[in-house]
Amino acid sequence: MTQCDQVLAYLTEHGAISDTVARELFGINRLAARIWDLRRKGHKIENETVTFTTRLGRTGKYVIYRLKE
Predict the structure, then answer these.
(1) Domains of the chain
(2) For the whole model, what pTM was predicted?
(3) Which residues touch 31 (CB under 8 Å, ≥6 apart)?
(4) pLDDT digits (tens, 9 = 90+) for 14-34
């Protein structure tokens, strides 16, 4: 099973995936590249950027990818 297959299966079953999940479950370090591959194959995937603040007051961002219905 390719990394794209793993991501697509996870998206189908769970609805969303982030970099952290992809790295921990599948060892995928470049999720955005696999999402790009899936989009090129015709899959409709949207992304949401989430901004967060740490306890130290620093801000960060991460992306959640979802299959578009």
Answers:
(1) 3-67 (1.10.10)
(2) 0.88
(3) 7, 17, 18, 19, 22, 23, 65
(4) 999 999 999 999 999 999 999
